[in-house]
Amino acid sequence: MGVLDYVSELCSLPKDQRKLRKKQFQTVEMKVRIDCEGCERKVKKALEEIKGVSSVEIERKQNKVTVTGYVDGKKVIKRVRRRTGKMVEPWPYVPYDMVPHPYAPGAYDRKAPPGYVRNVMDDPKLAQLVRASSMEERYSSAFSDDNPNSCAIM
């Protein structure tokens, strides 16, 4: 151990004093039931007071709130839940093009906005219902409407 190593250990900060990480710029989408303009103002006010928020967009018909900025997603959801008293959950829907079988049980949701289904690919219990097995793929491709001459039985 050289002199420089010894001096650098004396000058370094203790390991308990960690440097604070800067939050990354991100978009947080959540589902909040918004009934009227008063609810919308209450949610918007609660979110604009958070340090690091750049913009807040509310789509009342879809009950969707989008927050962008240097924020933590869990803290934003917790803040809205605490300040407004409303049920808040991360945005559970994705466009139906993103799911292999959008009308499988568990993926299809009547409460979803038009063109959206539940994001079941993240849920291991429901993902088995949405993914087709290789046997199902073989059967469905055997009788293709695109190519009627591809029937494997004839």
UniProtKB/TrEMBL annotation:
<protein>
    <submittedName>
        <fullName>Heavy metal-associated isoprenylated plant protein 27</fullName>
    </submittedName>
</protein>
<dbReference type="InterPro" id="IPR036163">
    <property type="entry name" value="HMA_dom_sf"/>
</dbReference>
<dbReference type="InterPro" id="IPR006121">
    <property type="entry name" value="HMA_dom"/>
</dbReference>
<dbReference type="GO" id="GO:0046872">
    <property type="term" value="F:metal ion binding"/>
</dbReference>
<feature type="domain" description="HMA">
    <location>
        <begin position="25"/>
        <end position="88"/>
    </location>
</feature>
<dbReference type="Pfam" id="PF00403">
    <property type="entry name" value="HMA"/>
</dbReference>
<keyword id="KW-0479">Metal-binding</keyword>
